[in-house]
């Protein structure tokens, strides 16, 4: 039901072509504020937040279907950021005050909380950040530099992974706190990410998320990987559908190029890969809600499969479109750019294969 | 309790009471794991026959077939529960083979009442073993090019020609064949689907050796073989429709038999890695091979999840174009599994027979060679991709 609403919304108002507008350096947010408000109105941000905090209390399975619909048109509105990167660590490790303060406004789409995770040279060593949390007179001081932080430009607060005197910690930091500076970065996929610098930012004990920081971060990363995989599934299916459409309409040598067996077989191969991807993403999203013991393995499966399949589809999509596929005027190229960006976010293929091997005992 | 849950309870009680102890925990319960039956079957453990008999009495050897033909008249969902429970106890299917998996469902759809009554109960009881007479030396991927002649002589057809890749023909009692009854029509239109008793004078099977050594494959020669006209399935000259429906059953079975043991490919490779590779701190040292095993394990799991998804989605009783997807993926997956296993085995993967190689490695090497056939038999991967391109993606015909 919600998934269908999401699909109609993106088809009506959020076609991928709008990226040409959103990517301009003078665009303030890199996504549409109005559209995001509409998405929040429809419940996309509230969906997976518990009812006690103004949400709808549904699971990752339902959220994944929304993200799949948004993914079809590469919609950059911060639904995944809000519902996963912000909400999951707060739900697992937030104090009552933090939950009461943030979760209802996250659910309403009025606040954006994002995860300040990656650092230069970090790759997948997320559990050993160089960002430091050191003792100070008032409590702690946070120093370090995070890169390509999702929706950094519009974030009201950051959850910062950092090394504290007692090991990995997650600090909730106001975006306007003294010592926080944000610089916009420009990426191939036109997503509005940024460098976030923390220069001795004052952090109180009560700003730290409670509980096992490693477990909270791992669960957040697993859920983010599956959520992103759902987005990638939608994107890959749309790029494929557009390509099959093009094969039927483009005429060369007097016939539609889709009648050539060389192209038919490659299209059939992509179709098979997409079937496996859909199965993996659905199973992983369902496991988050119903089978927590199987979830980490299935999360690795979903993301590794999404990485490989989306990239394969996007590369073939350009090849099958021929010359026009290379032009900025055609939309199909946006999918390749997004595929590469998504494939190295929340774990590349190699990372997830190693994790899978570990979880399977070899 | 829902109807399905009640049925599961009923099945559990039935299995607990009737399944022979000696057979429990012995089988993955795939569509080809069990008793193949037939008059030429070598002597078997009496428990295998006892198991067949108790199941047959309940209609459980062919559970979705109507009762009057030896089945239990169950829905696909109910039948799935039966197989699940048998698998959970590690029991073999009571009767398997091309009769149960291919000609049975085809007779149900296209056979005359007389043929159904004659053959289906015997298939369900595993009394008659069937083989497939489709390919010919000049009709492989171009299957509709069958040339084996069937000439009308009163109430009989007289068959002359050669079939190839007739698996297990030497052990079978009957063969279902595509034959040419009209050579002036368009090639798909002059084909007839007919059932032939292998005991008929003039039928001669001969075994074929493959690159993997001896094999179940045969070629079968037909010389003036007299077959009653009443053995035609469907209409004369319209056998191509019947033949294609049977192929979908064949593909679906190949796909699901490869996916029958979740995680088994990965487990087998990891076991092999334990014997052939260096480990440290619980990990395979060779990072490349380790990642390749993980890659394969993941494809295997995604395929298994796809099988489950297709099974849940299937409303109608007959496999459609999804069987092509499953066949392509399953067979290519299986080949990659053996290729990787050979890489892990190194020099030990080269044994053909004799000293210096253990039995597991020798068997694996033969399986590796045999697996090259998986993407050829039952409709090559190229043919399956043609089907997907046209029937699923709606791409235009090649001009």
Q: What keyword list fits this structure?
A:
heterodimer, A: 362 residues, alpha+beta, Butyryl-Coa Dehydrogenase, subunit A, domain 1, Butyryl-CoA Dehydrogenase, subunit A, domain 2, Butyryl-CoA Dehydrogenase, subunit A, domain 3, 3 domains, four-stranded antiparallel β-sheet, three-stranded mixed β-sheet, 9 strands, 15% strand, B: 399 residues, four-stranded mixed β-sheet, 11 helices, globular
How do the strands and helices of this protein lay out in sequence?
The complex is a heterodimer of chains A (362) and B (399).
Chain A: H1 2-13, H2 19-22, H3 33-42, H4 60-72, H5 79-93, H6 96-107, E1 113-116, E2 132-135, E3 140-150, E4 157-164, E5 167-174, E6 180-185, E7 193-203, H7 213-249, E8 251-252, E9 255-256, H8 261-290, H9 295-321, H10 323-326, H11 332-343, H12 349-359
Parallel strand pairs in A: 1-4
Antiparallel strand pairs in A: 2-3, 3-7, 4-5, 6-7, 8-9
Chain B: H1 3-18, H2 46-58, H3 76-88, H4 98-110, H5 113-124, E1 130-133, E2 149-153, E3 156-164, E4 174-180, E5 191-197, E6 203-207, E7 218-228, E8 232-233, H6 239-258, H7 264-276, E9 279-280, E10 283-284, H8 287-313, H9 322-345, H10 359-371, H11 381-392
Parallel strand pairs in B: 1-4
Antiparallel strand pairs in B: 2-3, 3-7, 4-5, 5-8, 6-7, 9-10
Helix pairs in contact in B: 1-3, 4-5, 4-6, 6-9, 7-8, 7-9, 8-9, 9-10, 9-11
């Amino acid at each position: 039901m919600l998934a269908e609403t999401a699909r109609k919304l993106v088809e009506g108002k959020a076609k991928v072509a709008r990226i040409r507008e959103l990517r301009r350096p003078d665009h303030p947010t890199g996504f549409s504020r109005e559209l995001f408000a509409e998405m929040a109105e429809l419940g996309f941000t509230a969906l997976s937040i518990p009812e006690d905090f103004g949400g709808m209390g549904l699971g990752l399975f339902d959220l994944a279907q929304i993200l799949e619909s948004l993914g079809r048109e590469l919609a950059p509105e911060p639904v995944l950021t809000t519902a996963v990167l912000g909400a999951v660590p707060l739900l697992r490790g937030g104090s009552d005050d933090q939950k009461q303060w943030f979760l209802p406004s996250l659910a309403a789409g009025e606040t954006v909380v994002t995860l300040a995770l990656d650092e230069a040279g970090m790759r997948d060593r997320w559990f050993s950040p160089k960002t430091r949390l050191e003792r100070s007179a008032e409590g702690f001081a946070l120093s370090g530099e995070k890169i390509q932080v999702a929706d950094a430009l519009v974030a009201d607060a950051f959850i910062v992974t950092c090394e504290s005197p007692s090991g990995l910690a997650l600090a909730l930091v106001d975006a306007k706190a003294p010592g926080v500076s944000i610089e916009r970065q420009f990426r191939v996929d036109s997503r509005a990410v940024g460098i976030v610098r923390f220069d001795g930012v004052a952090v109180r004990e009560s700003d730290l998320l409670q509980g096992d920081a490693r477990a909270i971060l791992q669960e957040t990363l697993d859920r983010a990987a599956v959520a992103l995989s759902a987005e990638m599934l939608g994107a890959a299916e749309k790029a494929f559908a557009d390509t099959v459409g093009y094969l039927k309409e483009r005429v060369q040598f007097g016939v539609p190029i889709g009648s050539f067996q060389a192209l038919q077989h490659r299209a059939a191969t992509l179709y098979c890969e997409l079937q496996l991807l859909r199965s993996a993403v659905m199973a992983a999203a369902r496991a988050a809600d119903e089978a927590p013991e199987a979830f980490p393995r299935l999360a690795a499966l979903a993301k590794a499969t999404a990485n490989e399949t989306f990239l394969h589809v996007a590369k073939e999509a350009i090849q099958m479109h021929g010359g026009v596929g290379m032009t900025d005027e055609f939309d199909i190229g946006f999918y390749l750019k997004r595929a590469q960006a998504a494939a190295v976010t929340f774990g590349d293929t190699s990372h997830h294969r190693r994790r899978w091997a570990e979880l399977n005992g070899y | 309790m829902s109807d399905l849950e009640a049925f599961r309870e009923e099945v559990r009680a039935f299995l607990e009471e009737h399944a022979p102890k000696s057979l429990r925990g012995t089988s993955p319960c795939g569509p080809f794991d069990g008793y193949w039956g037939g008059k030429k079957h070598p002597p078997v453990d009496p428990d295998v026959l006892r198991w067949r008999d108790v199941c047959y009495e309940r209609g459980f050897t062919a559970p979705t077939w109507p009762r009057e033909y030896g089945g239990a008249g169950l829905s696909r969902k109910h039948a799935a529960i039966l197989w699940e429970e048998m698998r959970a106890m590690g029991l073999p299917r009571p009767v398997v083979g091309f009769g149960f998996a291919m000609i049975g469902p085809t007779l149900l759809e296209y056979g005359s009442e007389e043929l159904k009554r004659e053959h289906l109960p015997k298939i369900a009881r595993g009394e008659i073993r069937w083989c497939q007479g489709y390919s010919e030396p000049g009709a492989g991927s171009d299957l509709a090019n069958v040339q084996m002649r069937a000439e009308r002589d009163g109430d009989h057809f007289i068959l002359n020609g050669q079939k190839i890749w007739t698996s297990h023909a030497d052990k079978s009692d009957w063969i279902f064949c595509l034959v040419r009854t009209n050579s002036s029509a368009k090639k798909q239109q002059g084909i007839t689907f007919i059932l032939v008793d292998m005991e008929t004078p003039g039928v001669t099977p001969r075994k074929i050796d493959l690159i993997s050594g001896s094999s179940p494959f045969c070629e079968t020669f037909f010389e003036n073989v007299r077959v009653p006209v009443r053995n035609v399935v469907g209409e004369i000259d319209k056998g191509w429709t019947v033949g294609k429906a049977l192929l979908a059953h064949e593909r679906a079975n190949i796909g699901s038999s490869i996916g029958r043991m979740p995680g088994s490919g990965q487990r087998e490779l990891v076991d092999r890695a334990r014997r052939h590779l260096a480990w440290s701190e619980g990990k395979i040292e060779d990072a490349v091979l380790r990642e390749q095993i993980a890659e394969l394990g993941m494809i295997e799991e995604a395929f298994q999840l796809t099988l489950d998804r297709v099974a849940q989605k299937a409303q109608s009783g007959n496999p459609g174009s999804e069987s092509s997807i499953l066949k392509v993926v399953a067979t290519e997956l299986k080949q990659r599994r053996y290729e990787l296993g050979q890489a892990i085995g190194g020099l030990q993967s080269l044994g053909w027979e004799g000293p210096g190689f253990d039995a597991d490695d020798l068997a694996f090497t033969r399986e590796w060679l045999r697996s090259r056939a998986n993407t050829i038999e039952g409709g090559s991967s190229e043919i399956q991709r043609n089907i997907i391109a046209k029937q699923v993606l709606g791409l235009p015909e090649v001009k």
